[in-house]
Amino acid sequence: MYILDTKKQSKIYLFISIFCIVFAFIYEHFSHGIYSNYMIYAFLIPLIFGFVPSIILTITKKNINRLSMNVYNASVANITLYMLFSGVLEIYGTTNQLINIYLYMTIILVVIGIYGIIKYDKKTNNL
Amino acid sequence: MKKHLFLILYSSFLFIFTLYLALDTFVIKKTYKIIEDNNEVEEKKVQSTITSNSYEDENIKITISESVISNTTVYVADIVLSDASYLKSAFAASTYGKNVVETTSSIANSNNAILAINGDYYGVQEKGYVLKNGVIYRSTPSDRTDLIIYKNGNFDVIEEKNVSIENLLDDNVYNLLSFGPTLIYDGKIQVDENTEVDRAMRNNPRTAIGIIDNLHYVFVVSDGRTNESEGLSLYELSAFMKSLNVDIAYNLDGGGSSTMYFNGKVINNPTTNGNRIKERSVSDIVYIGY
After folding, report:
1. For testing the chain B interface, which of A4, A32, A97 should be mutated: the one with the most B CBs within 10 Å?
2. How far from A12 is each of A45, B247, B281, CA to CA, in Å?
3. Cα distance from B13 to chain A (closest Cα, Å)?
4. DSSP 3-state of B284
5. I want to staple B250 with a disulfide (CB 3.0 to 4.6 A). Which of A31, A45, B147, B278 is the partner?
6. What is the pLDDT of residue A14?
7. How far apart are CA A114 and CA B84, in angstroms?
8. Model confidence over B109-158: pLDDT tens digits?
9. Among B83, B52, B140, B129, CA closest to B284
10. Which residue of chain B is at minimal alpha-carbon distance from A30?
């Protein structure tokens, strides 16, 4: 039976949030004063959509099935990378349409996640 | 291992995709069109008088001067032509493409340019008009304001969203620069002290082009990011262009791209990070030559 380790997950998300802050600070330090709101606020994605829900799950002792948790975490990773790379592009002064693939993958993952929630059997804790 | 299979697979996918995205954005060269004509440019033999800061022949007169404003060295090339055909643009490696770049001096040398400055770095954008020497290369509009150069040498500015590039070509527009903003129009400053290019810092090396009157132009490049020259804001650049009695002036790619080439050498101090004087490779130039 799959039991989600929410404490470990919350620590990982907190680390990722701090990493985003440090990355943004260092990157913009070497960018001759050019800044990007994507880069500055990227840390909010893992913080609000990763760390906070993990804390809530820890407090409520609620369990989530493995598939839904995996795709949710993958979605947060997608959006975080989208924000960081958008910042890189904005600071450089360029664009690349391929970056939207992060968003398209997130949509696919959300659909899979919803499927996982619908099919989740609470008795067996499986799909 | 099976427990973490999704994590391993998806992390690998994200890593590979992000790496490819970076390579596609900054490294992988894509050739869309090779410009044949530029490879056959021959140096035209004319009687010319050349000094360290001037060039003169029967068709082209160039005078280079230096000024210091706002703790910044500014180079001005005053250009008088007998015909607008001597004001041209050129692509790096004679190729229209993505991530196809060369230094301003290399492009200038390949095209036998007497005088050259870096252009609008079209290659870094996915959208925006590209029209060089009477040929359309990209017709996807952006939200930028462009400088258009007519076949008779006159300047004007247009908003890409308001006019098609095909209409511009029909109206005898010969070259187009898509960077901005417009610095001077009808002799009046068009920027305020808070205007900046996207999210760039206020003081930067700058490149600008202007027209004073018929077939009388200025190319202006400022140094920056060094102890000797801190760089100019767009407003300072505009005020300087106004002091040259420019009718229309337009901002081109600045920062590490800002380069002025004259008579075979780079005459300013191009730098990206202020630590090393070195030309940045760019995708195109504007130049004076045959």
Report:
1. A32
2. 13, 59, 41
3. 11
4. strand
5. B147
6. 96
7. 64
8. 999 999 999 999 999 999 999 999 999 999 999 999 999 999 999 999 99
9. B129
10. B273
C-alpha span between B72 and A25 (Å, rounded)? 28
Flag if A34 and B25 touch (Cβ within 8 Å).
no
Burial class (CB in 10 A: 0-12, 13-18, 19+), B44: exposed
Nearest to B148 by CA among B167, B125, B124: B167
Share of chain B above pLDDT 70, in %: 93
Among chain A residues, the shortest Cα distance to B205 is held by A32
What is the DSSP-derived secondary structure letter of residue B245? T
Q: What's the N-to-C CA distance of chain A in angstroms? A: 11
For the beta sheet containing B260-262, the strands, ordered from the edge strand earlier in sequence to the opposite edge, are: B87-91, B284-289, B113-118, B260-262, B265-266
B155-159, strands of its sheet edge to edge: B155-159, B145-150, B173-177
Q: Is A118 helix (H, G, I), strand (E, B) or coil?
A: helix
Dist CA B32 CA B98 (whole Å):
8
Cα Rg of chain A (Å, integer): 17
Its ipTM equals 0.88
Lowest-pLDDT choice from A53-62, B19-28, B230-239, B250-259: A53-62
Interchain proximity B17–A101, CB inside 8 Å: yes
Q: How far is CA A125 from CA A56, A65, A114, in A?
A: 19, 6, 16
Six-digit token string for B27: 């490294």
Three-class DSSP category at B153: coil
